[in-house]
Specification:
The structure is a single chain. The protein has about 130 residues and is mainly beta. About 10% of the residues lie in helices and about 35% in strands. It is built from 1 helix and 9 strands, in the order H-E-E-E-E-E-E-E-E-E.
Length: about 130
């Protein structure tokens, strides 16, 4: 059910809604993935090359995260997703990229990069990746 239909039903049955905003479209092409492998980047000391499962496919993603580990569930911006680099500036559309000579097919995201405010307890970990539990 879309936001407008929900607002209309809520108005009819309960109380008037002045407006509704569809925020789900901002998360198109953003999924939860599982890191299967992590390898050092051959041309950059601070980068890693991951193999990350996003369901039916496994993506190679170059990442600079320091708190990543194999088996971890992470937010992944797939090609076409809109993200903010390091949570700042205008959103950019994810495209296939070559980072220091290695192909990358998505982005492992911190909450602020996809517009999700981190829970208060995690505010100290700004810029770090969320860890999803099964």
């Amino acid at each position: 059910m879309d936001a407008q239909k929900l607002a209309m039903l809520f108005t009819i049955r309960t109380a008037e809604i002045e407006g509704a905003e569809d925020q789900a479209s901002g998360y198109n092409n953003i999924v939860v993935g599982q890191i299967l492998e992590i390898h050092p980047h051959p041309n950059a000391d601070k980068l890693k090359v991951t193999k990350t499962s996003v369901g039916k496919e496994t993506l190679q993603i170059v990442c600079g995260g320091t708190n990543l580990f194999e088996g971890q569930y992470v937010a992944v911006a797939m090609l076409g997703a809109k993200v903010k680099w390091h949570g700042e500036g205008e959103p950019v559309v994810m495209q296939e990229a070559k980072i220091r000579g290695v192909e990358s097919y998505g982005m492992i995201c911190a909450g602020e990069e996809i517009g999700v405010e981190q829970p208060q307890i995690q505010k100290r970990a700004k810029g770090r990746f969320w860890i999803f539990r099964q």
